[in-house]
Amino acid sequence: MEQASSSSNAGGGGGANNIHLGQTSDIATAFLTALDTSLSKKWREEDRMWRKQDISYRKEEREYRIVEQLYREQQVNWRKSDVKQRTLENARCVWNRYVEKNRRDVEEKSEQLKSISNLSALIAGFAVVSLVELNFTNDFEKMPSHVSEWLICAYAASTALVVGLMLNAMVLCTFILSSILKRGKSYVSEDEEAEFLFRCRRFANHFKPGDYPPQPKRTFERHWENRCESSWKKAFYMFTLGVPIFLANLACCAWLKFSYSKVTNGVVSGIVFLSACVWAKTNKDWGWEIARGSDSARTSINGGIRKNLKRGADVGGKINGLPFDWHARPKEEDDEEEDEEEEEEEEE
């Protein structure tokens, strides 16, 4: 009985221990479950907050990208406007070069015309004064033997020729000068500038390799070549022809004025002859060169354009286009040819 009671007591104590352990495990499980639930809830709240922040960031990023896209579009518009403005500035710069060239051409031609006109008036005045101031007897019987009617006729004819040639040269140069001063500014008017700037902008928008920038349709240089060049040459030739006639008139005047002295007549005639020789040499060196100036300038310009076209061609025979066609450095062969031509001109 005692053994049974002891065994029953032992069994009851073990069951109590088992119950206590089960309760402890249930409590631990519940605690861990609650802790996991709390941690999971906290993590979910943090994840939810992070997601909200991420959505806000993505929204800001989307807005930033929209702003950046608008800025890029605005920058593209700014660039287009800048290109248009630069095109306009380049066209205006080219136009200013043409305006400056027009001004220099007008000044150059004006100085040429003024110099010829002033010299012609001066020589014509000398001839008229010599004719008026010359005094000699009207009695042919009292004149020396070497003074004949033919000498008097030559003197009068040379005076008339000098005055006529110089007067016509002076009047022609004056009319041409008035014409170029009146017409010169019309080639750089506001209408011409607007038309040229429009063509330059159209050229910049439709440029293709090998195209050349436009040039003004109406220029003073063309007006001079077509309208004034022949008249200018005519006036220059009349002036060059009148100078030796004036020297001959001076010799005739000396023979009439100093008819009593053959030595004086001979000295004056010799000086006139030397002056005529010097004038012929000067006219040969410079006169005809001035008269051929425009023709030689056109020839050199055309030759320069052909050289630029030749230099601008690549291996395939195509034109490189701007800026190489306009700013290409001359080849060494061209430089040597130009140096040789300059040396030959200096030797001549």
How does this model look, in words?
The chain is mostly helical. Helix content is 84%, strand content 0%. It contains 8 helices and no strands. It has helices at 2-133, 149-183, 190-205, 220-257, 262-291, 293-312, 324-327, 332-347. Helix 1 runs antiparallel to helix 2 (149-183) and helix 4 (220-257) runs antiparallel to helix 5. Mean pLDDT is 76; it is low at 1-11, 299-321 and 323-328.
Give the gist of this structure.
By secondary structure, the chain is mainly alpha-helical. The protein has 8 helices and no strands.
List the helices and strands and how they pair.
Layout: H1 2-133, H2 149-183, H3 190-205, H4 220-257, H5 262-291, H6 293-312, H7 324-327, H8 332-347
Helix pairs in contact: 1-2, 1-3, 1-4, 2-4, 4-5
